Amino acid sequence: MTRRFLWLLGVTALLPAETFTYWIEPCSAEVSRQTTCAAKDPELAEWAIEAWQKAADLTFATAAENHARIRIYWASDHMRLYGKASPILVDGKRGSAIHVNPDVSQLGEEIYRAAEHDTLLRDAIIYLTCLHESGHALGLSHTGKFEDIMYSFGFGGDIVEYFERYRRRIGTRQDIRTQSAISAYDRQRLLQLLRQHP
Question: Which strands make up the sheet holding 93-100, listed edge to edge?
């Protein structure tokens, strides 16, 4: 990731002592018709934010959409990506608009077959996507390490296994909240990033 892109994401403003604002799009009846999100999907996004908060001792707080520096939206089924984070400017500070695709049928035949009859795997995929994209919002670039949440599928590897590996760690949906999937290397990189931009 270039220094310019880090600047666009506002990494210099992300201090451990700072309160970082976020907003998560509710999965209303109208939104679910457009995006196929499920009513409890916003909870998965909330758990992703909590995971980063615990990993790096950051402080997050909810805010109105137009004042939130991290905004998580549910993407339409036309976005054939897991998710995407785009830089935005919020009240003079840099932030990120994140779009997460909740429709696993759009993510390739292998993923769809694996998650079609496994609701917990489907939730795990959405949670891990929220976690990955919010990592980008905090300034983290991709890695080539399969065990990292910031791993890029562009490096190849068994993508179904990437998700199934996490799925084997959880027995109930609530387990997702305590199994963050942030690796030691992810955490180390974020802490280093924060130290470099005091």
Answer: 59-62, 19-24, 70-74, 93-100, 83-90
pLDDT in the model for residue 76: 77
Instruction: Work out whether the CA dihedral 171, 111, 23, 190 comes out positive or negative.
Output: positive
Distance CA 198, CA 194 (A): 6
How many domains does the chain contain in total?
1
Residue 180 lies in a domain: yes
* Residue reference for tokens 């109930």: 172
Q: C-alpha angle 134/137/140, rounded to 5°? A: 90
DSSP H or E stretch at residue 166: helix 159-167
- The one-letter code for the residue type at 131 is L
Q: In the predicted model, what is the mean pLDDT of the chain?
A: 89
Parent domain of 22: 3-184
Can you list the positions of beta strands (E) in 25-172?
59-62, 70-74, 83-90, 93-100
SS3 93: strand
Residue 77: pLDDT over 70: no
What is the per-residue pLDDT across 170-192, written as a single tens digit (0 to 9) for each? 999 999 999 999 999 999 999 99
Structure tokens at 189: 């990189």
Look at residue 191 and tell me if it is in a domain.
no
Percentage above 70 pLDDT, the chain: 90
